[in-house]
TrEMBL record:
Residues 28-140 form the Glycosyltransferase 2-like domain. It comes from Nonomuraea composti. Residues 458-499 form a coiled coil. This is Glycosyltransferase. InterPro entries: Glyco_trans_2-like, Glycosyltransf_2, Nucleotide-diphossugar_trans. It comes from the Bacteria. It holds the Pfam family Glycos_transf_2.
């Protein structure tokens, strides 16, 4: 298949599917069903009306223990598979085992596709071999017809949209604006997936009670998937889903299990010391580089502020043959010390090769002897996550004698995508730069050192927390005292303002009295002057 463009992040717009498609890919529609024969008949009738070629379409109905058993209506080309293991995941896996298509289209037994839905899905799959395409469901409460009507919209409308998917798509620019969890789009009602991706990610997890769709979507993302919402792929869901009826209890059950398997759901991993089935980051260290160097690195990693971490120590552990009579003369003493020191540490795995669980989102490849600071790993992860980077190279040391010594923080999904689209002989890091982004940072800036530190440990962290709480309490008491002092000053200021007003009033009264006295004195002076003048004139005349 010729890929028209390399998708960066989840910005699938570079693919531009062909509106005038010449179909060549086959699709297997897998329908798990438990009872509901009347709805299944409508679903199969809708599949018979699809515009995508019937000769390229395989339909597999999986009866998950219905009583009475499900039957296929006459004239259908569908295959019927019986699966006695209960659960939708088991039923889907049974159908998947029989599927032969280039694309797997999950379809629920109560979802009626509009005629052009599968063709709308397949236009995208002809553009790239690593896509997950989800159609738009509308939930109808209309009465079930005896036969599928010619005008689906007229019969099933008004209907409600799949609100949370519409909201997710709208707030992320159609999932193109570097969304953190695009895999949430993988819902089983009407989603199609490249069979190549399913093979890489593995089948549905049958241990899960709920949340199987999302968990598989996460693994598909880790395998390099790009997630595409397709409004033209429309379908009607016959009635509400179980989650719509009981969202809170459904989420409660789902979250209890998916927390172990989906590291991207950080809010489900708030416990400061728990270990999880799939860690958020695995640090790979060469265990053959000497006991002291290995311990410097591993102990610093385990003492950091990221508890959701595992360490993979590589070395020929299965070949170790200890000599208990002369341990100091053992030529493999350094390996023996590393093996003995970490073999019972739950977050450390001793392995022959550096193969990391593909479900782990980030991998840090770190040379032994280099110790990250307490918050180093957290800062690198923040950088990769916030900027959507596929690779962060860390320059640790450079010299003429040693060359360049570096560490690498790799995003597993970016490297999986790069392996899918890389051409023969093409440098994988260059392809990662195209599909996700690559950067270099200085190790010293991020706190790397060759000096072995003293891990603080939980007791020290506890003491620091207690001291911080005591300091916070002291500062709170001081703030309360200052607030009381401020209140006192405000009350005093109010009294001063009141006194000032009263003084101003008294001064005003005194000024008015003084003015009256001045007027009286002026009148008296005028009277005296007039009287004296009159007396003087009389004397002069006499």
């Amino acid at each position: 298949m010729t890929v028209r463009g390399r998708v960066r992040g989840n910005d699938y717009r570079v693919l531009a599917p062909d509106d005038h498609l010449t179909p060549r890919l086959t699709v297997s529609v897998v329908i798990p069903a438990y009872g509901g024969q009347d709805k299944l008949d409508l679903v199969l009738a809708a599949l018979a009306r699809q515009t995508y070629p019937a000769e390229l379409t395989e339909i597999i109905v999986v009866d998950n223990g219905s009583a009475p058993p499900l039957r296929l209506p006459g004239g259908t080309s569908a295959k019927l598979v019986r699966c006695e293991r209960p659960g939708r995941a088991a039923a889907r896996n049974a159908g998947l085992a029989r599927a032969t298509g280039d694309v797997i289209h999950w379809l629920d037994s109560d979802v009626v596709l509009t005629p052009g839905a599968i063709e709308a899905h397949m236009r995208w799959h002809h553009a790239a071999p690593y896509l997950v395409v989800t159609g738009y469901l509308r939930f109808t409460g209309a009465e079930l017809p005896a036969e599928l009507p010619d005008d689906l919209e007229k019969h099933f409308e008004p209907a409600e949209p799949h609100t949370w998917i519409v909201d997710l798509v709208e707030r992320t620019g159609g999932l193109t604006d570097n969304p953190q969890r695009p895999f949430s789009l993988h819902v089983g009602g009407a989603t199609s997936v490249s069979a190549r991706l399913v093979e890489a990610a593995g089948p549905m997890d049958e241990e899960l009670i709920l949340g199987q769709d999302t968990e598989m979507g996460y693994r598909l993302a880790q395998a390099g998937a790009v997630f595409v919402p397709e409004p033209a792929a429309r379908a009607y869901h016959l009635g509400p889903t179980m989650r719509m009826r009981d969202k809170q209890p459904i989420d409660r059950v789902s979250h209890a299990f998916v927390a172990d398997r989906i590291p991207a759901y950080r809010w489900l991993r708030g416990h400061p010391g728990r270990q999880w089935k799939v860690p958020y980051v695995t640090v790979v260290v060469d265990g053959t580089r000497g006991y002291d160097a290995v311990r410097t690195t591993v102990d610093a990693v385990l003492a950091g502020t990221v508890p959701d971490v595992s360490v993979l120590l590589t070395g020929p552990w299965s070949t170790l043959d200890r000599d208990p009579r002369a341990p100091l003369l053992d030529p493999n003493l350094e390996l023996v010390l590393v093996h003995g020191h970490y073999r019972h540490e739950g977050r450390v795995r001793l392995a022959e090769t550096a193969d990391v669980d593909p479900a782990v989102p980030f991998v840090l490849r770190l040379p032994a002897g280099w110790a990250p600071g307490e918050d180093t790993l957290a800062r690198l992860l923040d950088l990769a996550r916030d900027d959507g980077l596929g690779l962060v190279n860390v320059l640790l040391h450079e010299s003429d004698a040693d060359g360049v010594v570096s560490a690498r923080l790799e995003r597993a999904s970016a490297f999986a995508r790069a392996r899918i689209v890389a051409g023969p002989g093409e440098d994988l890091d260059d392809v990662v730069d195209e599909v996700s982004g690559v950067t270099w940072v200085e190790g010293e800036t991020y706190g790397f050192t060759t000096e072995p530190g003293v891990p603080q440990g939980r007791r020290s962290a506890y003491r620091a927390r207690v001291e911080a709480q005591e300091e916070a309490a002291r500062l709170a008491k001081e703030a309360e005292r200052l607030r009381a002092q401020v209140t006192k000053w405000r009350e005093e200021a109010a009294r001063w303002r009141k006194s000032t007003v009263e003084l101003r009033r008294e001064v005003g009264a005194l000024r008015r009295q003084l003015a009256a006295v001045n007027r009286a004195q002026q009148g008296l002076r005028t009277l005296v002057s007039t009287t004296m003048k009159r007396a003087l004139r009389k004397r002069l005349r006499g």
